[in-house]
Target: ANTAR domain-containing protein
Amino acid sequence: MKLETQETSVETLGVLETAALLRELTAGLITSDDFDDALAHLARTSRDAIPGVTWCGVTMLRAGEPASVAASDHRLSELDGLQHGVDGPPMAAIRRRELILSTDLRTEARWQPWTRRALALGVHGVLSAPVDIDDHVIGSINLYARDPDTLVGDRQLTAMLLAEHAGLLLAAVRDRARQAALVGELDGTLVNGELIGQAIGVIMTQRGCPAPEALQVLRTASAALSIPLREVAERLVASVARPRNP
Model:
C-alpha cells in the first residue's frame, strides 16, 4: 500500500510540473508578436522547468528564410543549427516528425560528428521533439542533459506535450507578427498620403505633438464620429483652409 502511494505521488508531481511549464510558457508568449523573442523565451522556460534538463535549444525552419536557432546557453547553439547538415537529433526530429532520444551519447553510434561535438560541450543526453507551427514553419525543441540516463520516463511525455503546446503558441505569435506588420504598412500608407499628412501636420501644429500622437488623435475622432479616417482628415484640413471673416 505504501509503494502505491509513493508511485502516485511521483506521477502527480510530474503532472503538476508539466502543467506549471505550460502555464508559464503561455503567460510568456500570449502577448508576444516577435517570433525570435518567443523562441528564446521557449528555450529558457523549458530549461528551467523540466527536471533533469540542463540546457534547451530550439531549431526552426521557415520557408525561404535561414534557419532560426534559440538556445538557453549560447555555447550550445551550434548543436541546434545546421552546421552538421541533416546529421543530428534536431534535424532528425524535424525530418522524421517523431521524438528522437539518446539517453547516453557516450554509446551513441548515430550522428557521429554531432555527437562528438555534443560530448565535448558536456552534453550526455538529448531528447528532440518535432514542432509543427504552420504550412511554412516547422522545427524541433531540443532538451539536453549533462548527466546520462536522465531524459527517461515522463520526460518523453513532457517533451511531446511541450512541443504540441509550443506549436500552437508560436503559430499565434506569427499571426500577431503578421498583423502588426500589416498595421505598420497601413500606417505608413496613411501618413504618406497627402490629405492625411496635411491633417497630421495641422494637429502637430495645434497641439505641439509628434506625428504618431497626431495620427492617434485622428483615429480617435474617426471612431467617436463613426466616419472614415480620410473624411475626418478632409474636414480638419478644410476647416483650417477656410478663410476667416474680417
Summary: Residues 154-192 form the longest helix (39 residues). Residues 49 and 90 are 20 Å apart (CA to CA). The chain has two domains: 2-175, 193-241. The two ends are 100 Å apart (CA to CA).
